[in-house]
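Exam revision sheet. Question 4 asks you to relate a sequence to its structure. Input first:
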Amino acid sequence: MKSVKQGDKVQILCEAKLETGEVCYKNDQNNLIEVVVGEGKFFPGIEKALQEMKEGESKLVTLEAEDAFGPHMDELVIKVPKSVFKPEVTLEIGSRIRIDAPTGKSFVGTIVAMDDQTFTLDLNHQLAGKRLVVNVTVVSIAEKVQQ
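Answer key, structure tokens:
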């Protein structure tokens, strides 16, 4: 049975959980993730763990926050005046909203606090600062094409 080597294209199943056991991501056979091992386009810790795995094999990989979605950055928690939002829009703590900057870039944030005048938005990724435990299963291996 062949095993995963650098440059192989693999299809994988992943289930990522927080340390609390809460599932934060899970795919299925109809939505396999395709990774070229060593290409650096997926989490490096998972790409490394995939090497030498065989089809059907599963492995638990723990990703520290820095190796997953990065640390939680306090400078990405900002106050925004309520007046910038349309009054007919109902916003509450936990709401996810998109902000379009004048530069044309969009940011997604979560309302984490509010008072009479402002919302406090956290623009960090929802999983920033969190350790993830990922169960990865190799479904198929396509060996790299020799050029």
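Marking note for examiners. Strands lie at 9-18, 23-26, 33-36, 58-63, 77-81, 96-100, 106-114, 118-122, 132-142.
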